[in-house]
Design a protein that fits this description.
CATH architecture of the largest domain: Up-down Bundle
Order of helices and strands: HHHHHHHHHEEEEEEEEHHHHH
Strand content: 5-15%
Distance between the termini: 33 Å
Number of strands: 8
Shape: globular
Structural class: alpha+beta
CATH superfamily of the largest domain: Butyryl-CoA Dehydrogenase, subunit A, domain 3
Oligomer: single chain
Bound molecules: flavin-adenine dinucleotide
Helix content: 40-55%
Largest sheet: 4 strands, mixed
CATH class of the largest domain: Mainly Alpha
CATH topology of the largest domain: Butyryl-CoA Dehydrogenase, subunit A, domain 3
Number of domains: 3
């Protein structure tokens, strides 16, 4: 009996993801008029200045903020799904969810009363937030930060240069990491603070619509209420938690990106190839199609599992997130590369969608922890899990 004959009509595996696909509010992020607008921005390579207003009505900008601070308090599962859906259309726009989510969550959890009182502006999309950790010589190695914050009588003076900030050209609020005499720390810097200069970043092959910026701080003076958490707490707690969340959103965004590449591959492979056969009938191509399918579906399940681990506050949630990030960013690379290959010369058009998605996939293996760093961190977790249950808790 064929697989189609044994399948019950409408059968879906019993997982949270399939409940979420019926969520009309979420579907609106990837369908209809909104989706057409996003696709237009992606083609133009430019997300517009008023993107916050476009997204505000969906509730997605307050998803990681409790209701008492004006948020919509979504589960990790639901926000992950929003990232996946936007990721199918535009990795650039999806990256806004990554960074805005990381910063709003950090401010709700560790921000001063003043920072929390301003969260409503961010959740309503009247302001946007960006994450400013990386520097020219400090990317993966966050401990080598050179940005410095000097304590003064009524606050801090920050000096340094932050690179590669997604949506830095538009952001009103930056979560900036700097060293202090008492250790690493996180600060809120506002666009209009004295000593702030924002410069558009050099063009990148991926995330080309994400309005990347360089943030220059020249003795930028901020009040003591701008400290997020306390010195010595910046990278491990505020940054650490933000990066765990960021990795999960990158995992879901990568799944969405990979799924759109698979769609493009299948459409192209359905066209006539050589000797009167369609490309999808060539055995070697069928191998690429099935390998990609396994990688993408596996990554999606890992992302869903990681989100539910965070929702359940599982002690191994970090390990689940690392596994999801590793698998999903690699699945995106594979799916984008197969798509480019199947498209032949069309896949090499410098300004073509296939090529852009390949660039986006490259970014996924670099940001929020490059592939090799994530492998290293995950190995540590796997070994710790084994130590905790040497008999094999996973069996
Ligand atoms: C499009 C884009 C958007 C970005 N958005 C942001 C943002 O919004 N905010 C922000 O703060 N930063 C952002 N970044 C910066 C990004 O986080 C860094 O590029 C990333 O952390 C890697 O740092 P790096 O480029 O200095 O590379 P490096 O750290 O120098 O790494 C280069 C390579 O060395 C290898 N490597 C590095 N460390 C290890 C290790 N521990 N073990 C084994 N191999 C290793 C890896 O192969 C890695 O790819 C963005 C970057 C890009 C390209």
């Amino acid at each position: 009996m064929s697989a189609a004959a044994t399948r019950k009509p409408g059968h879906q595996p019993p997982c949270v993801h399939h409940q979420l696909t019926k969520d009309a509010e979420l579907r609106a992020l990837a369908e209809g008029e909104f989706a057409a607008r996003v696709a237009g921005w992606e083609r133009a390579g430019h997300v517009p200045d008023d993107v916050g207003e476009h997204l505000a009505a969906t509730g997605v900008l307050g998803a990681l903020v409790p209701a008492r601070y004006g948020g919509t308090a979504w589960t990790h599962q639901r926000y992950g799904e929003a990232n996946r859906l936007l990721g199918t259309l535009s990795s650039s726009l999806q990256s806004l969810l990554t960074v805005h989510g990381m910063v709003t969550h950090a401010l709700a959890r560790w921000g001063s009363a003043e920072a929390r009182s301003r969260l409503g502006e961010l959740t309503a999309g009247r302001e946007l937030a960006a994450f400013a950790l990386s520097e020219s010589v400090s990317g993966s190695d966050v401990r080598s930060l050179t940005s410095w914050a000097e304590r003064g009588p009524s606050g801090w003076r920050l000096t340094g240069t932050k690179r590669w900030i997604c949506f830095g050209q538009l952001a009103d609020v930056f979560l900036v990491f700097a060293m202090t005499e008492s250790g690493d720390a996180a600060f809120v810097v506002r666009r209009d603070d004295p000593g702030v200069r924002i410069i558009p970043e050099a063009a990148t092959a991926g995330f080309r619509a994400a309005r990347l910026a360089v943030l220059e701080l020249d003795r930028c003076a901020v009040g003591s209420e701008r400290l997020v958490g306390r010195p010595g707490f910046g990278l491990t707690q505020v940054g650490g938690r933000a990066l765990t969340l960021g990795r999960l959103w990158v995992a879901f965004g990568s799944v969405g990106l990979a799924q759109s590449c698979v769609q493009a591959t299948l459409a192209r492979a359905d066209r006539a190839g050589a000797a009167g056969r369609r490309l999808k009938d060539f055995q070697l191509l069928r191998g690429l199609i099935s390998d990609t399918d396994v990688a993408v579906r596996g990554a999606h399940l890992l992302a869903v599992s990681a989100a539910s681990a965070l929702d359940a506050s599982s002690e191994w949630a970090v390990s689940e997130v690392l596994a999801a990030k590793l698998a999903a960013s690699r699945a995106a690379s594979l799916a984008a590369s197969v798509s480019a290959q199947v498209h032949g010369a069309e896949g090499l058009l410098a300004d073509g969608a296939v090529h852009h998605r390949l660039g986006d996939a490259r970014v996924m293996e670099v940001i929020e922890g490059n592939t090799q760093l994530v492998q290293d961190l995950l190995a540590e977790q796997v070994i710790a899990r084994w130590r905790a249950a040497p008999e094999g808790a996973n069996r």
